[in-house]
Amino acid sequence: MLYKKGFTLAEVLITLAVIGIVAALTMPALIGNYQKKVWVMQLRKTYNVLANGLDMIKADEGEDNLSDTQFYSDRGISTVDGHIRKHFNVIKSCTSDDNDCKFSDYKALNGEKPNGPPTFGSSGNYYFFLNDGSIIGMLSPTGDNLGKLIDFVVDVNGTKPPNQYGRDVFRFAYAGNKLEAWHCNGTDGAPCVTTNQGWECAKKIIEDGWEMNY
Prior knowledge:
By secondary structure, this protein is of the alpha+beta class. The protein is built from four helices and six strands, in the order H-H-H-E-E-E-E-E-E-H. The chain has a six-stranded antiparallel β-sheet. Strand 2 and strand 3 form a beta hairpin. Mean pLDDT is about 75; it is low at about 140-145 and about 185-190.
């Protein structure tokens, strides 16, 4: 008589335990990589929306340079709001002095509180909530930047966590008549590392072929 040999209960349990251990070790990394790809996809979309919208503002006023438009020279909330609402799918806009624009939980890439501006909630800035769930903050220029550029901070997934520079929050500047990723003091090569604020990270992501390699 022939007997078919099967797996014992102990062997099955050991196999399941090994599978469980391997899954526990690999799943966090897989989930983390997936989340990074989602943030980068959202960043790329928000970047394109912002760049295209600013180009349409120039076209509206028949100007080649954004610095020649009323949008740039006025910077008043009524002028800015009118242009932004025309070219972006805005569901709500407000200034940082409005109670529903008080963002106090934003973190630097290293997890600490950002060391100074730009951050959501700074006085005198404008914020636009888009229908795709993102937020675009237009930061009032000061000091050496006055009249030279417009500083933007974008949160690609709105008020959802982690609300952290370099993850779902990124900084851009409109300078030299184009939208570009912000880089320190107008120079290249500033590091995007976990010990930094994370303001440089959009630049690194773009340079790395739209990959979050950190």
